[in-house]
Every structure is written in structure tokens, then in C-alpha cells.
Q: What sequence folds into this?
């Protein structure tokens, strides 16, 4: 009788866990995104897309998507792709009014760190820790974190080299 009760209890527990997982909308993609976002700061300030060009669907709903890589001559001519440009094209990262992760999952433009973090994992880790990027706020309170596109142009993210400062004068050399 005890063995039967343990088996029934195990089955009921398993069914409850399955039910809770399904009813909460748990999916592998949602779990992956939650894992990526679990250590994020309290407040993130993204650079918003320009209202002239966003939402993308303002224009792209009326034009068929040309997914082949080419030089842009009619629209978006101000964009020069210098970001893995020999391997990337617009539709690798953009899909409609969303950003597209390598898994195919779509995320809002206010979460570019999820897209950038796929290739730049160590920088993403450092950004979450406050080592990379500009962070302001209180030591032991709310902080403001800038996201990747607050400082980097996503199409040409590399900063120009900075000339190093002269080395400091040694105290012994000061007279």
C-alpha cells in the first residue's frame, strides 16, 4: 500500500510540475532570455530608434523584403556596414519592428544587449558587472546603465583610436 501511495504521489507531483510549466508559458526561448537577463541592472537607458525610420513597418509593410546583400542606393544610404560586414546583412539582426537573435527569437529594440551579447559574450558579462560601458548612479542604490547602442553605432561599433596621454612626470624629476 505504501509503494502505491508513493507512486501516486510521484505522478501527481509530476503532473503538477508539468501543468505549472505549461500554464506559465514556460518555453525554452523564454527561459534562455530570462537566463540572459537575470543579472541585468535595475534600470537601462536605451537609445531609441529615430521616429522617421521607426517603426520599420511604416515602409517595409509596403515593400517586399529584398534579403540579398547589396549596396543600398534608395533608402538607408547613410548606413555603412562595418561590423562583420563580410559575413552579415541587415536581416541577420533585423526582422520587422524587432531585433532578431540567432535563434530566430525576436526582441524589442530596447534590448539590444541580448543581440550584441550573442557574439560579444565577454563584453556583455563585463557590461552587466559595470566594467564595460558608462554607468552612473549611487554606489549602493539605483544605477543607470547605457546599453550598447547608447555608445556604439551598431553598424560601425568600433571607436576611433585615441592618442595616449603623455606619461606622468616622476616626482624625482620635479624641481
A:
Amino acid at each position: 500500500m505504501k509503494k502505491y501511495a508513493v507512486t501516486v504521489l510521484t505522478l501527481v507531483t509530476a503532473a503538477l510540475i508539468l501543468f505549472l510549466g505549461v500554464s506559465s508559458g514556460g518555453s525554452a526561448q523564454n527561459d534562455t532570455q530570462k537566463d540572459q537577463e537575470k543579472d541585468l541592472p535595475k534600470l537601462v537607458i536605451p537609445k531609441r530608434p529615430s521616429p522617421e525610420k521607426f517603426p520599420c513597418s511604416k515602409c517595409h509593410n509596403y515593400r517586399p523584403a529584398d534579403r540579398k546583400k547589396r549596396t543600398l542606393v534608395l533608402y538607408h544610404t547613410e548606413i555603412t556596414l562595418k561590423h562583420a560586414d563580410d559575413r552579415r546583412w541587415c536581416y541577420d539582426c533585423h526582422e520587422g519592428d524587432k531585433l532578431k537573435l540567432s535563434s530566430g527569437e525576436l526582441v524589442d529594440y530596447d534590448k539590444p544587449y541580448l543581440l550584441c551579447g550573442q557574439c560579444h559574450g565577454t563584453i556583455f558579462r563585463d557590461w552587466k558587472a559595470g566594467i564595460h560601458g558608462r554607468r552612473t548612479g549611487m554606489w549602493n542604490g539605483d544605477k543607470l546603465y547605457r546599453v550598447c547602442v547608447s555608445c556604439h553605432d551598431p553598424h560601425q561599433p568600433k571607436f576611433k583610436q585615441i592618442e595616449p596621454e603623455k606619461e606622468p612626470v616622476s616626482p624625482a624629476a620635479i624641481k
The longest helix spans residues 2-23. The beta strands are 43-45, 94-95, 98-100, 106-107, 135-137, 143-146.
